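Before going further, learn to read the protein records used in this course. Taken together, the tokens spell out the fold as the letters spell out the chain. A record is reproduced here so that you can trace the correspondence yourselves:

***
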Amino acid sequence: MKKREYWLDLLHHVPKWNHWRELNPEETIDLSGINLNSYDLEAINFSGCNLSHVNFIGSNLRFANLSSADLSHSNLIGVNLRLANMRQSVLFKARLHRSNLSEANMVQSFICESDFSKAIFYETELGESKIYKTSFSHAKLVNTHLGKADIFMCNFDHAIMESVDLRWANVIKTSINFNQV
């Protein structure tokens, strides 16, 4: 059985996948382009994996380890990423519309041309991240930490922003419109 087929089989059993990852930490994992639509991947270890162009629509990635993962061009619409470790992840042109990123660790992530419209950020850590040309339109950011982040040409129009920490953040050419009822 080829490696990729073996990995796909393991993805149906998160504990087996995580055990295999523990035994093979040096293995480079490329799952680019696969369909993981509506999978229950709670607490899965995808750290350092190539997950570009993966379809995760409606999947559960709560408590997932996505640190240093490449999620470029991935479809994460409506995904539960609550308490996920996304530290130093790459989100280039990723779609996270209506996703739940509450209490996720996204510190030092690279986020460019992504869509977080209508996403939920409650106590999410985004400090020291590089965030460029990304939409947070109609998103809800509560107690979210963006300290020391570089935020360039982003759209926060109609976002709900309560107790958002922007200390030492560089916010340049970014649209924030608080027209709310």
